[in-house]
Structure formats: structure tokens, C-alpha cells
Design brief:
Layout: E1 12-19, E2 27-35, E3 41-47, H1 56-62, H2 66-69, H3 75-86, E4 91-93, H4 97-108, E5 118-120, H5 121-128, H6 140-146, H7 156-174, H8 178-182, H9 190-193
Parallel strand pairs: 1-4, 4-5
Antiparallel strand pairs: 1-2, 2-3
């Protein structure tokens, strides 16, 4: 299930989900953008069988339907394989939905919620670009335009990569690591707080 060539731990992993319907537990795709000490991104995504119906609205949004996930693994199998990777470094989400979706899916399937250190790239973006408040905002749609990001919105892998790029751009903009921008947990994740690469040159 994990792609070959991954080299954890990373400075951080950006993470995104898509859902089959309005229920946050109905995860049908997970995306990962693994960022190393030099700012290189290893990007992958996988489909998840939510074992429930897709809404027409959600399928229109992300293009995933029941036929595409018929032979995909169920959430318990996916989270069992990926939680150990995710737990080794901060997990970046753009807004808090992804964290809620994982918790909801764990509850739905009777699983313990994995102990992950979640970081919100919306908060990072707000601190890096306060001028966007009331002037486009800090959603991925506006940041795509403002930061000249190239990605396909509402694909979990693409959105995860975009969230990773937002963090890296914010570090360049502020001259600080994202942990320093958030001013929290620096001692817990020294790799994230003190990258070996020099993003500010």
C-alpha cells in the first residue's frame, strides 16, 4: 500500500481526504505530500472504499464514484498501514476537516484514533499573509492564484501537495520554519523546527 522509496521521518507530511458524501467518515481518497529536510516533496494518493453510497454532488466535485473504489481497501486497512508513517512527524492539513474525517472514520469503524500531531496550514497562511484576510482569504483556491501554485483542486494528492507548498512558501515569506511560525511544539519536533535545507536564500 505504501509506495516504494519513502524515507521517513520527514519534516512534515501534508495530508488531504476526499469523501463519498456529506458524512465526514466516508473517506474515499487520501493524499500525502511528504516533505524532506531539503524541501523536496514525495507525493502519493490512494483510493479508499467507504462502504457506503456516493452523493452526486461529491462525485461531481472530485470525480470519484463507487465503481472506482469497488476493489479499493477499506479504511481500517488503510489507516493501519499509514498511521505509523503519519505519526513520525507533524501532519499538515489545510483546515481542520481532514483531522475530523479521520477521527470520524475511526469512530465509525470502532477503531482508536491514532495519536497524530496535526498542524493547520490555514493558520500558517494567515500569519504569513495577513493581507489576504478580506481580500481573497486563505483557502486553497485563492492561495493557488496568489502564490502561483499549480495543482488540480479536489484531488487528495494534489491538495496535499498544495498544502505542503503553502507551508514552504510561508517559511520563505517569514524567514521562519512553520513550527516557529506557530510558536508551538518546537522541542517535540526539532527536525520540523530546524530544517537542514536553507529555504530563505
Amino acid at each position: 500500500m505504501l509506495p516504494a522509496g519513502l524515507s521517513p521521518p520527514y519534516r512534515f507530511i501534508a495530508f488531504d481526504v476526499e469523501t463519498a458524501n456529506r458524512n465526514p467518515h466516508s473517506i474515499c481518497q487520501m493524499g500525502f505530500a511528504c516533505v524532506d529536510d531539503w524541501g523536496q516533496i514525495e507525493n502519493f494518493s490512494l483510493l479508499v472504499n467507504p462502504a457506503e453510497a456516493f452523493s452526486a454532488f461529491n462525485t461531481h466535485l472530485h470525480g470519484i464514484d463507487a465503481a472506482m473504489v469497488r476493489h479499493a481497501p477499506l479504511f481500517p486497512e488503510v489507516i493501519a498501514a499509514l498511521a505509523p508513517l503519519m505519526a513520525q512527524q507533524p501532519v499538515v492539513q489545510h483546515s481542520r476537516f481532514d483531522e475530523r474525517a479521520v477521527a470520524a472514520a475511526c469512530g465509525w469503524h470502532g477503531l482508536d484514533v491514532p495519536a497524530l500531531h496535526w498542524v493547520d496550514s490555514v493558520t500558517i497562511a494567515r500569519r504569513a499573509w495577513p493581507e489576504f484576510k478580506g481580500n481573497g482569504g486563505h483557502g486553497l483556491g485563492h492561495l493557488k492564484q496568489a502564490l502561483s501554485l499549480q495543482f488540480h483542486h479536489h484531488d487528495a494528492g494534489e491538495d496535499a501537495r498544495a498544502a505542503a507548498q503553502v507551508v514552504l512558501h510561508a517559511e520563505i515569506k517569514t524567514g521562519r520554519s512553520f513550527v516557529e511560525i506557530l510558536a508551538r511544539q518546537a522541542a517535540k519536533f526539532p527536525r520540523a523546527a530546524n530544517p537542514h535545507y536553507e529555504p530563505f536564500e
